[in-house]
Amino acid sequence: MRTADGSITVLAYGVLTASSVSSLQNRDTNDVTLRTRKAFDPSGPAPVLDANIVVGTVAAGTLGDVVLDATGAILAGATAITADSLSIVTRGAVGSSLTRLRTTVVSLSLLVDQPGSAWIAESNDLSITSARILTARCS
Fold first, then answer.
1. What are phi and psi of 100, to 5 degrees?
2. pTM, rounded to two decimals
3. Pairing label, strands 39-40, 48-49
4. 25 within 8 A of 62, measured Cβ to Cβ
5. For the segment 86-114, what is each residue's pLDDT rounded down to a tens digit?
6. What is the largest CA-CA distance in the chain?
7. What pLDDT, in 10s, does the model give residues 110-119?
8. CA distances (Å), 43 to each of 17, 40, 47, 71, 72, in order?
9. H/E/C letters for each residue in 33-78?
């Protein structure tokens, strides 16, 4: 998914796989917001489907911001997130010890709202504007 000029907002009920999401014009207003919520599955044994975000390439340029808001976990793919600021709200882990969420961002705001871990690999200097991880390990 991409836009020539403008922001991108996605709300998915269940798992969201963001293989390649990008705003092609580098502007402060060209933000990318990816949200998931749990979905009811009346046919399955469990009443709720996972609501993870699987992150591939997410690019908002060097001026746009990225928001990842998952009712589940944030799972890292093989590529990275590029943005001015990255805001993560999750009720699960962020990345893992084997597959860290790779970023090229200036600032990070992080909230892991349930017990979990945050594994992030930043390519440059990083300013952490806020971080809260409930009973977890951060690396």
1. -70, 150
2. 0.90
3. antiparallel
4. no
5. 999 999 899 998 999 999 999 999 999 88
6. 47
7. 999 888 889 9
8. 23, 9, 8, 21, 20
9. EEEEECEECCCCCCCEECCCEEEEEEECCCCCEEEEEECCCEEECC
Tokens of 9: 């907002």
Higher pLDDT, 63 or 48: 63
DSSP label of 116 = -
d(CA 8, CA 78): 21
**Listed residue (115, 97, 103) closest to 79, CA to CA:** 103
**Tokens (6 digits) for 37:** 């919520």
Contact 90, 72 (CB under 8 A): yes
* Residue given tokens 């090229």 in the structure block: 104
Provide the β-strand partners of residue 87. Answer: 67, 109
